[in-house]
Amino acid sequence: MSSQKMVPSLVITWVAPPILAILLAAIPAMAQNGNRDYTFLIGSGFLCDTGDSSACPGVVNSVQGDGYEMSGAGMFSTKNKLVTAAGTFTHKSREGNALERGVWVSSELVSFESYGIAPGALLQMGAAFGPPQFGRLPMLAGPMPAGGLAVLRIRLLPMRGASKTALLQVNCALGKAPAERQKEVIRLAFEGAGGEFNEEVSGRTMLILARSAANPAPRPPATEGETNPSPAEVQQ
Prior knowledge:
This protein has 236 residues and is of the alpha+beta class. The protein is built from 6 helices and 11 strands. It has a 6-stranded antiparallel beta barrel.
């Protein structure tokens, strides 16, 4: 293998996994950060621990038969449209041969449609809230699963060649998902003449909503002393 081919290969092998691992390890903290409403997974993290081989990675094809395999994680804010996300991708031919590999990053949320929260979703899946290092987060007091359709603008950085920009749709069919969006899927549409990949194949997605964003903790009722100040307090 030439040195020109080895360098990008090493980038994917040694740089992409740590980036993804950092994002995955930070999910509990992200979900409680008021600057980011949602965290999400695409064919990665604890979604891969269910024993279902079709859960990871996320796979989507074009009408021509070629497709993209994608994994990743991140967080986004519905208020300022900011995204912090990264992952890996592989572009495969109809025959299953790898045409291109690389990493993808995102910093922009194009749109988001919420389907609401789904408190019992992880229990129904039979999955813990993340691998052992995450611990089990309290389902009623902390972050919880939610459904929605997020559209991210991503940049794909291949091992060779120029970068590409695309819109990545991430659909998590929890909560009150519309009838036409009852599958956890991804879709990919390249800007320019890059083509569209709309035929969902497999993969799992997950959205996690920060509890503070879903239902702010109510203030405790005022005590009698707070509502009726003492004479001394009035004189002051």
